[in-house]
Amino acid sequence: MPKVKINDIEVEVPAGTNMIEAAAVAGVDIPHYCYHPNLSVAGNCRMCLVDIVGGRAPEIACNMQARDGLAIRTDTPAVKKMRQSVMEFMLVNHPLDCPICDQSGECRLQDYYMEHGDYDSRGVEEKVSKKKRQDIGDKIVLDAERCVECSRCVRFGDEVTGTGDLRLMNRGDHTEIGMFPGERLQHHYQGNLADICPVGALTNRDFRFQRRVWYLKQTASICSGCATGCNIQVCHQEGEVFRYLPRRNDAVNKSWMCDEGREQVAGISGLKRILRSRVDGKTVDTEAALIALAARLKSATHVGVVLGSQATNEANWALLQTVRKNLKSARIFVTAGNDPGSFEYADKLLVDTDKNPNSAGVDLLAAFDGQVESWEAFGSAVADLDLLLVLEDDVVGRLAGRRTAAAIAYLGVSRNATSEAGSIVVPVCHPVEMDGSYVNRQGRVQRIRRAVNAAGDALPAWLIVDRLGAKLGVAPGTGMVAAAFNSMARAVPQMRGLEFKTLSEAGQQLIVETAPVAPTEATV
Amino acid sequence: MDFPRILSGNWELENSHKLDVARSCGTYGRVQKALAMPPVELIQIVKDSGLRGRGGAGFPTGMKWSFVPSAEKRGNKPVYLLCNADESEPGTFKDRYCMWKDPHLMIEGMIIAAHAIGCKVGYVYIRGEFRYIYDRLWEAVHEARAAGLLGENILGTGVDFQLHIHLGAGAYICGEETALISSLEGFKGQPKLKPPFPAVEGAWHAPTIVNNVETLAAVPWIIEHGAAAYKAIGTEKSPGTKLFSCSGHIRKPGVYEIPLGYPMRDLINVECGGLLPGRTLKAVIPGGSSVPIMTPDEVARCNMDYESINTLAGSYLGSGGMIVMDDTTDLVAALTNLLRFYAHESCGQCTPCREGCGWMYHILCRVRDNCATAEDLVTLKDLADNIHSKTICFFGASAAMPVQSFLLKFKGEFLARIEAASKGLPAGSHVSPASLSVVGA
């Protein structure tokens, strides 16, 4: 691996690494607009110009590959002046409308001006005006005046979605980003355009003007929209979630996520949330509901339990343990398919046809148990069951009108056909309200993290099941999420060696028999 | 002055663009010999001749050709030869004469060059404004094809070469070789990042050589007479002859072929017939609008070759587009006009050039219109410095160099303009005759 020097700091990086990334390894930040780690190099913003030690002219770091002996400097007066002048050029025709711009607070023009600009304005010429507030797609609003023509969005359309929709029109300081006449963005990855836009030119229609970004806290988590398990940041303030942003993980979603995934935010505080426990139509506290549930499970002859492909590994593990330890005759099933009402879109890039975030995790646990029965077996057995305990999945909805069990107990997040049919209903936390883990379609175990407090009486499912176990006789010892994960990791061979607290933000690839599905650069 | 007119020898003949006239002058007479030679030998001859690119940069042609990766290294990728006929540098109009008067000479040069670099398909990228020449070039190609000089198995040698003429859409930047490639590929004409260089990865990601019209037209003579004969003309580092497009305040504007190293003042006084009566020389832009301007003093010292102009005047021979300006010239207006061009033609890719060219133009407009201050000149100079060599291609420097050189060599005129404006004097009263002159009226 080549050794390079950045401001005399020597680092060893893989061959082919560009000098922006190499500098980051050395702890030196090289400012940039057009460079994006998951897009091709355009080299046109000129913000990353650096001096090469012994070189003749400054060069851009983004297009400079690490080679042995290469030494660059980012702290010379020349570099300082170059950055300052690029900032000056960027801003000379910029409207400077920060007070009404939604990008404020996460704008590279603001950030870099404070860090590298900081000059007295010489801009006395009339600014070039361009088209503002353009409706270019269902998710995106374009303000061409704020654009710095970095071409990230153009390259995103060319290289990621393959739609080639955004283009730089005209020349010189009249260069303007735009769509072809009469066209609108059609793809399902529009939100990413707002994310990669370093300035306020492309903003997200759903998030615009909802909250100033500096109020938002970010919690690293996983999207629960489908089996892909895109890594996300949950952006929230005072218990309210405002948006999901993709979190870079080149093994899963690179820097992207789909628009349907972002729309999952609406479900967190939606009107369909189950907020209180209910037994036979009466609202009760969760403790009372669990006592009633335990009693009915004990007295029932034919008990069926359905693991939840939308529930965490910890919840499923807790349920598996509780049932096996306390209800010897109960039959356990897995579900298949998607809940009615879940979005239908799927593609080869990120959006899976399986809309459940933890199908692979449930399959792993079912295989470990060995006795768990299939969805088909469930279909023929369900009518004969006295009591059916369902974890999160809308089993009744998925049965699509076929006869179900005599009685249903439902542990779930939102109201659906199963909760309506349930005689006992217990509210479960939304994924942003609890800790846990999912296994995605590639067989990668990834952590979700609690960002906000639970709505109503909702509790994490692993905790609910642990309390239920105590009432049935033997608690599975899953009263703490880490304990639940660790006991599972000790037992399940594919997870052996993993520990909850050391599970990294990038997740951990498990050794699974199914071929891992890597995200491809397919046309959407 | 005794020298062979390598490039313009046939221009005065009637129907010089026709194949039979061209052949009667010896054009295509070198093809048989060249195609029988091994490519490495051809490259060596051109290397030895010292022929340099006539588009403006003056890069050694033979060396450029040798950068094409060997057949083993490039695998099954083809090699492309592109003729840069997008002559758009203000003040330059030599290639249009080459193509209009003697298109077959250029085509012969391309056949030989293609064989040297292993190319089977070549393109002439001609600027959109040369619509009339475009038709003539296709005519020439059809004539040559019918005579077995283009296409498959040229003159029975087993060498194939197809030639296409591609009309640009009229953007100055498409004369930059990587922008030319982008445009030829069907994309917006914008320069590409280097590396990779076109010789390694150019058009459609295949090795590509881009040569100027005049460069290619010089190749047949070199093959016929040998490297030594070519090197005997001109100076040691700038051998051969070159076409100069002479315009401005001279009596006989036009295209002149002269050996490199020829004194600049002789070119102005003898070939161009001197200045208009009663005028004195104020300044000369020697190589197209992008190169730094020269004072009469520098004109007196310099010869028309790459080294002399560079070392003695800090300017460049460039494309050989010489613009002569006499004492009636308003240099403020001249520079403003140049910057109007650059602000309009900047492709808009790199930040400094995109925003800076328009900014410099607006400042110059204010100087011209008598509403600027001396501080604006400081800003102007600073902006030019901040653009020069900070961009992907050479356009930024091309726009910056006129500003830098005008302000360095003629700052007095700009300051006088500003001062006159501040005193409310009428526009134009600042123009003073140049103190030095080399050319008698």
Folded structure, characterized:
The complex is a heterodimer of chains A (524) and B (441). Chain A is of the alpha+beta class and 524 residues long. Helices cover 25% and strands 18% of the residues of chain A. Chain A contains 14 helices and 23 strands. The model of chain A has no long low-confidence stretch (mean pLDDT 94). Chain B folds into 3 domains: 19-231, NADH-ubiquinone oxidoreductase 51kDa subunit (Rossmann fold); 241-326, Roll (Ubiquitin-like (UB roll)), CATH 3.10.20; 331-422, Up-down Bundle (de novo design (two linked rop proteins)). Chain B has helices at 19-24, 31-36, 39-49, 61-66, 71-74, 95-101, 103-117, 131-146, 177-185, 213-225, 227-231, 264-271, 296-301, 306-313, 331-345, 351-368, 374-387, 395-409, 411-422; strands at residues 80-85, 121-126, 162-167, 208-212, 241-248, 254-259, 262-263, 281-285, 303-304, 321-326. In chain B, strand 5 and strand 6 form a beta hairpin. The radius of gyration of chain B is 22 Å and the shape is globular. In chain B, 58% of the residues are buried.
CATH 4th-level superfamily of the largest domain in chain B: NADH-ubiquinone oxidoreductase 51kDa subunit
> How many β strands of chain B by DSSP?
10
Total strands of chain A: 23
Strand count, sense and barrel status of the largest sheet of chain A are:
7 strands, mixed
Mean pLDDT of chain B: 94
Q: Strand order of the main beta sheet of chain A, please?
A: 15-14-20-19-18-16-17
Output the helix-strand order of chain B: HHHHHEHHEHEHEHHEEEHEHEHEHHHHH
Percentage of helical residues of chain B? Answer: 40-55%
Radius of gyration of chain B: 22 Å
Shape summary of chain B? globular
Q: What global shape of chain A is seen?
A: elongated
CATH class of the largest domain in chain B: Alpha Beta
Helix content of chain A: 25-40%
Number of helices of chain A: 14
Strand line-up of the largest beta sheet of chain B: 3-2-1-4
Low-confidence stretches of chain A: none
Measured distance between first and last alpha carbons of chain B = 23 Å
